[in-house]
Amino acid sequence: MLTIRELNFVLQQPPNACAEISGTISYPNLIGLANFYTISSGVLLFVRVKGLPFSAQVCGPAFFGFHIHEGLSCTGTSASPFADVGGHYNPHNCAHAEHAGDLPPLLSSRGDALMLVLINSFTVEEVIDRTLIIHSSPVPTENPDISGPAIACGVISKGPCTTNSILFK
Q1: CATH classification of 16-168 is 2.60.40.200, yes or no?
Q2: Could you read off the pLDDT of 18-35 as tens digits, one per residue?
């Protein structure tokens, strides 16, 4: 397990890979940055997102599905903007919720989300050029194959990102 000092050191280094996340035309203010760091115990994933839809109601939706998908681009059709992302990244044909690309849901606080998670189901090299998707809702228990429409996407690329990085300094 990482100490706070080790964690601080890792997060000050350039990431091994990153994804700049952008919302669909329906969510033009949704942006995010996901940094992937290779460490001895797996992959450390640090995610920051702004502009998630939120409700002023106390019991409004706050969780968003978050997955690595098999596809290589954030393209699709006007009806399904990210149709080309394919299914969840699942190189070992595991059951749902055990796919290598199944990540913890994002928890939004008035439209912003921050997540730091240690993962050992893939290496950084295995997911470079794959897509990272934010879904409008977490995976519902009544149908684990549907996690709501994709509302944002980013392609995981090798090395640090540059464009959206300035928004999170």
Answers
A1: yes
A2: 999 999 999 999 999 999
